[in-house]
Each structure stands twice: as C-alpha cells, then as structure tokens.
Design brief:
Distance between the termini: 25 Å
Structural class: alpha/beta
Bound molecules: alpha-D-glucopyranose
Number of strands: 20
Strand content: 15-25%
Shape: globular
Number of helices: 17
Oligomer: single chain
Radius of gyration: 23 Å
Helix content: 25-40%
C-alpha cells in the first residue's frame, strides 16, 4: 500500500561526501541511513547515480546500468540496498528515459555512422530554406536542435545540447530501456522516479509551433500525447507492473488533471503517482520563470485545490511536495526564513503532509535549509541558470537585476550541500565542495537541529501521524475558504471522521470562519506550531501558524 508511505529525496552529489573529493557518494548515504530512519521515511529516492559527464548533474546518463565512480561502485550500491532494507527503507532510482547523454554509446555509434543506432534518435535535415527542422525551443534556453556531426542533420534535444532525445517510436529503443528498468528491479530497488516522462511521445512529423517559442501551444506538440499513455502502459506491463510493492512516480511537465488521472488511476496500469508543477509557478510573471514577483497566494490555493479534488474524484494519486532539486527552497520562497524559520518550515510541511497524496521531503528541508543567496554568478553551476543568465543580459537586464532573479529562482538554491554540522564545509566534505555551502550553516545544521531544534521533530510527528491515522493516508479531500487571502484551509474525510487543516501563509494575525459541519463535535488538536488549541466558529492564527484538528464521527 503506497498511501501511507513518505518518500525522501536525496541529491547524491550534495548529500554526504566520505572520500573528500567534494562530491557526495553512496557510502555517504549509507552513513546517514540511521538519520533517515529516525525521521521515519519509507523510501529514499536517489537522483541519478549513473556514469555521466554531469552537464546536467547526472540527468545526462552515459550508461544506464552502472554506477558513476564519483559516487562509488556497484558493490556500494548493493550494500546501500541491503543496509536500507535492514532499516525498513526502500531505494527508489531515477530513470531518465526521455533522453541520454551524447556520450552514451548509442549516440556515439550513431555519430560514427551506425544506421541502427541513428534510429535511436530524432535526426532531421534542415528545412529547404536552411533553417532548423522546427522552431522549437530547448527547455534550458536556445534552439532544440543541434547539428549532428557533419552529417547535414540535426538531433532533437528538448533539454541541454548534451541530452539527445531518444526515439521511443523505435521498438528497439523501448526494449533497451525496459531492460534497464528490469536490471535495477533485479537489484532489489523498490521504486522508480521517471524523469520528464510525459514528453516521450513526440509526433514523428515534426512541425513548427505557431504559438511562439516555449508557448503552451509548442509544448502541446510533444507533451501528454495519447501515445505516451500507451508506452507507459507497455513499460508497466514489461517491467514493474508485476510487483505490487514497487512504487513509481512520473515527473510530468506541463500536464493537466485529466491526464494526471489517466497516468495514475490503477485501472489503467500506468504509474502509482505523478509530480505536477503548476503550483510552483505562482511566482512567475506572465508564465516566465526568470522573473521575481511576489507569489500569488490565491492562485497557489486554487491550483493545489484543483489537483487535490480532481485527482480524488477521478481515482488518481498525487505526489505532494514543495521542494526538490529543481526548485528554490520553499521556505525562502513562500515564507520568512529570517524572522519565522520554524513557523514557516513547519507550516509549509503541514500543508503538504496532510494533503491527499504521497508526501516527498527533499534533503535539508527537514532542518529548514534555505536558499544560499550567492551574489556571484560564478558560484552557480547549474546549466539552466548560466544559460538564462546570458539570455537575461542579452534581453537588456543588468547584472544586478539578473542576479536578484537567480538568487530567487536558480535550481542551485536547492542543491547546495546538506548542512550536517558547524564544522568546515558544514561537515559535508573534508575537501572542496562542488557547489558552495550556504553561509548560514553554523545556525542551520543537522547536529544543532537534533540537539535543540524543533523542525526535524515536527516532520517526524507529521510522518508518524500518517501511520497512526488512516484519514491522513486514505481520506478524501475537500478545500474550503478558497478566497481567504491569508489562510489555506482544507478538510479530509473518512468513515465519518473529519480532519481540518489550517495554514497561515503570512506574518501577523488572520481569522477564518469554520464551517458549521465541523462544530459542536468531539475533537482533538492533532498538531500545530503555535498556540491555537480550540476549534470554534472563528479561529485566529498568528504568524505562519498552522494547526490541524481531528473531529470524531
Ligand atoms: C527533470 C529533472 C531535471 C533535469 C531534467 C532533464 O526535470 O528533474 O533536474 O534537468 O529533467 O533531465
């Protein structure tokens, strides 16, 4: 049963280094399994650990069935699976099946002229007028086509130029990829996170977009196409579908609720759950990520509510989360980490952990790690960040303006090394870390948090409540007070019981009217981060306060 599980995401490169080379490694993960057990999580998802030139930190895979020496050996991996299992923790691997590294043998053979492997990729000639095969834009900026050697052809890359899209129309490609999944199943992994899976279904007759580069019209040409569902079903049948304990989560870019239901309704035999991202675009100006307006709280509520109710109604299942390796830290984004670090972190966590779906905790969030606020562009390694820095300058922004945006939006905000202690480099490495450690590590670190902090314990309590109360894992969802400008409010329902969850997203005080149906019944305060103890017709919450009440049938 996946509903009562909590998943913890590890970004191996930044988790814990044991050999002093500045990159986290598998022995580092093994050394922290007791810490994860203490937190109470069920599954640890590892971002890619395969051989890779690391242009996109391992999401450019050069060999799908080996371990990058940077992270350790296959023996280390086997030890990790076993040691985790001994602690009741399953390992979930990241499968990057939409594209592979241009250093992968398949691409290299294709480049060398091997026709069999050329058909593994989307290779197209220029248009008659000499322009690129289509006008599509890469998701990391710049055109989506790159010259393919000197063959007078271009290859498609929806992401970086070093990530060539794989031609799923070719049954040999699908067979190879399914073999990869089975290889890791045989190693005893308990789950798969499938990278950008809903863009595998490009139509073979590539046409120009008419809505402009990166428009939703353009994305519609290759996103959520009907054949994606067919191929995921095929993947399911050929691999994990047989194993009821195996958990899968598809990363779905720009998807919608009807497709989300299709991907995850068990009757369709596709995936266990999906990530969707619309709720993390509420601080984009006119849909543009590289901007920095205040977040739109009402929109945030509306989107979460739409996904919660929609997936609930259609028998689908959400992955619920605010943080991952592609996002700035949610507490820096939606709260006040200077004045209310505990309230902010726990309020955001509570919003997520009581929703209907499987909660994800991203490394460091359980101790309140924040955006690092690096001033210097040289301190950012992420390819999306550096590409867009150049694009912002080209479009007339000053260096300072661009840096303000990068400090808020760069993916590296979530990728700085985990702050384990107040030792040099936050105890992450004895060498030079591949990405700088955030300066606030003397105040925010695991050692200090376990000694006298309150955020970690709050996460632990939230995780335990999911195990103790079936309403948290199984209950249906209903949002209320959707137009309240400061408080997020929703309820869950199971067998006559109700769970009421309130979260105040701002400083100061805010009051909310509680619907009649929840009043005059026996209740208990399940958990909260402030003083509010009573459920009455009006509830007042202080700065970033959150509370949950369990009401008996
Ligand atoms: C996903 C990953 C991201 C990566 C991209 C391309 O969005 O989460 O880190 O850059 O896919 O593989």
């Amino acid at each position: 049963m996946h509903q009562d599980k909590v998943i913890y995401q590890i970004y191996p490169k930044s988790f814990k280094d044991t050999d002093g080379n500045g990159f986290g490694d598998l022995p580092g993960i093994i050394s922290k399994l007791d810490y994860l057990k203490q937190l109470g999580i069920d599954i640890a998802w590892l971002s890619p650990i395969y051989p890779s030139p690391q242009y996109d930190n391992g999401y450019d895979v050069a060999d799908y069935t080996a371990i990058n020496p940077l992270f350790g050996t296959m023996e280390d991996f086997d030890t990790l699976v076993k040691e985790a299992k001994d602690r009741g923790i399953g390992i979930m691997l990241d499968m990057v099946l939409n594209h592979c590294s241009t250093e992968h043998e398949w691409f290299q053979k294709a480049l060398a002229g091997d026709k069999y492997y050329q058909d593994f990729f989307y290779l197209r000639p220029a248009k008659d007028d000499g322009s690129l095969p289509t006008n599509w834009e890469s998701k990391f900026g710049g055109p989506a086509w790159e010259p393919f050697g000197d063959a007078d052809l271009y290859y498609l890359h929806l992401f970086d130029v070093h990530q060539a899209d794989l031609n799923w129309h070719n049954p040999n490609v699908r067979r190879e990829l399914f073999d990869v999944v089975r290889f890791w199943m045989d190693k005893g992994v308990q789950g798969f996170r499938l990278d950008v899976l809903n863009v595998i279904g490009k139509s073979e007759d590539f046409v120009d977009s008419t809505g402009g580069p990166s428009s939703s019209q353009e994305k519609g040409l290759y996103t959520d196409t009907p054949i994606v569902h067919e191929w995921i079903h095929e993947l399911n049948k050929a691999t994990f579908g047989d194993d009821p304990n195996l958990i899968t989560v598809g990363e779905m870019s720009s998807t919608n609720v009807p497709n989300g239901i299709k991907y995850t309704n068990p009757d369709r035999e596709e995936l266990t759950m999906i990530f969707s991202f619309h709720h993390l675009k509420v601080d984009y100006e006119n849909g543009e990520k590289w901007s920095n307006p205040e977040f739109d709280f009402l929109e945030l509520k509306e989107i979460l509510n739409e996904w919660q109710e929609g997936m609930s109604d259609g028998g689908g299942w959400n992955a619920v989360f605010y943080n991952n390796h592609d996002q700035p830290r949610a507490n820096s984004r939606f709260g006040d980490v200077e004045n209310f670090p505990y309230e902010t972190a726990t309020m955001l966590a509570q919003t997520i952990h009581f929703m209907r779906g499987t909660p994800y905790v991203y490394q460091g969030e359980e101790i309140g790690m924040t955006n690092p606020m690096f001033d210097d562009i040289e301190d950012y390694a992420d390819i999306e960040t550096t590409n867009n820095y150049a694009i912002m300058l080209e479009n007339g922004k000053t260096h300072e303006e661009a840096m303000e945006i990068i400090k808020a939006k760069s993916r590296d905000n979530g990728r700085t090394p985990v702050q384990w202690s107040d030792e040099p480099q936050a105890g992450f490495t004895t060498g030079e870390p591949w990405l700088k450690v955030a300066e606030n590590y003397p105040e925010i670190n695991v050692e200090k948090e376990l000694k006298d902090g309150k955020i970690f314990n709050y996460y632990r309590d939230l995780i335990q409540l999911r195990k103790d109360h079936p309403i948290v894992s199984q209950g249906s969802y209903h949002g209320f007070a959707l137009d309240h400008p400061a408080i997020m409010a929703y309820s869950r329902h199971l067998d006559g019981q109700d769970l009421v969850v309130l979260a105040h997203y701002y400083p100061g005080e805010a009051t909310i009217d509680i619907p009649e149906e929840f009043l005059g019944r026996n209740y208990q305060r399940l958990i909260g981060n402030g003083d509010c103890e009573e459920l009455s017709n009006q509830v007042t919450l202080k700065d970033y306060e959150t509370v949950a009440f369990l009401i008996e049938a």
